[in-house]
């Protein structure tokens, strides 16, 4: 079992509430989303592993069991071309759960007309593999978001 921690403080939402059909319909994979607090913050590693993908607005960490978790910082934030996002690690870096990976400001994303909601996706998993995801609650960065069995 892999425990996936919330990379951000905020309110946990079901994927179907994400304003992007690719995430809302779980086409990328199952998981949850966090509507982050609207202050500058750092997105944290959701598990121990290696950063296998890193763009300013999204990252994927893979653990030793090969389980990959994608965190997408906001919706349509690729259109910002990295502006307002500061990666703190590099692709290929080994990271620890709770380690800051990207500095950004959800309020600035919202002010740009985009949603700051952040999907946290278990890649190559099925919904039946995930347990413990409780939506409608507030989490702190680092709190357990769900378990991957």
From TrEMBL:
<dbReference type="GO" id="GO:0016301">
    <property type="term" value="F:kinase activity"/>
</dbReference>
<keyword id="KW-0598">Phosphotransferase system</keyword>
<dbReference type="GO" id="GO:0009401">
    <property type="term" value="P:phosphoenolpyruvate-dependent sugar phosphotransferase system"/>
</dbReference>
<dbReference type="InterPro" id="IPR050890">
    <property type="entry name" value="PTS_EIIA_component"/>
</dbReference>
<keyword id="KW-0813">Transport</keyword>
<dbReference type="InterPro" id="IPR001127">
    <property type="entry name" value="PTS_EIIA_1_perm"/>
</dbReference>
<dbReference type="Pfam" id="PF00358">
    <property type="entry name" value="PTS_EIIA_1"/>
</dbReference>
<dbReference type="GO" id="GO:0005737">
    <property type="term" value="C:cytoplasm"/>
</dbReference>
<keyword id="KW-0418">Kinase</keyword>
<keyword id="KW-0808">Transferase</keyword>
<feature type="domain" description="PTS EIIA type-1">
    <location>
        <begin position="20"/>
        <end position="124"/>
    </location>
</feature>
<dbReference type="InterPro" id="IPR011055">
    <property type="entry name" value="Dup_hybrid_motif"/>
</dbReference>
<keyword id="KW-0762">Sugar transport</keyword>
<protein>
    <submittedName>
        <fullName>PTS glucose transporter subunit IIA</fullName>
    </submittedName>
</protein>
């Amino acid at each position: 079992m892999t425990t996936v921690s919330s990379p951000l403080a905020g309110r946990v939402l079901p994927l179907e509430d994400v304003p992007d059909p690719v995430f809302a319909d779980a086409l990328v994979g199952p998981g949850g989303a966090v509507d982050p607090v609207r202050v500058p913050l750092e997105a944290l590693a959701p598990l121990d592993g290696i950063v296998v993908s890193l763009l300013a607005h999204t990252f994927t960490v893979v653990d030793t069991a090969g389980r990959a978790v994608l965190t997408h910082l906001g919706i349509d934030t690729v259109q910002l071309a990295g502006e307002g996002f500061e990666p703190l690690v590099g692709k290929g870096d080994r990271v620890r759960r709770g380690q800051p990976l990207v500095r950004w400001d959800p309020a600035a994303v919202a002010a740009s007309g985009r949603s700051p909601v952040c999907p946290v996706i278990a890649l190559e998993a099925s919904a039946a593999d995930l347990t413990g995801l409780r939506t409608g609650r507030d989490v702190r960065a680092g709190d357990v978001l769900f378990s991957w069995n």
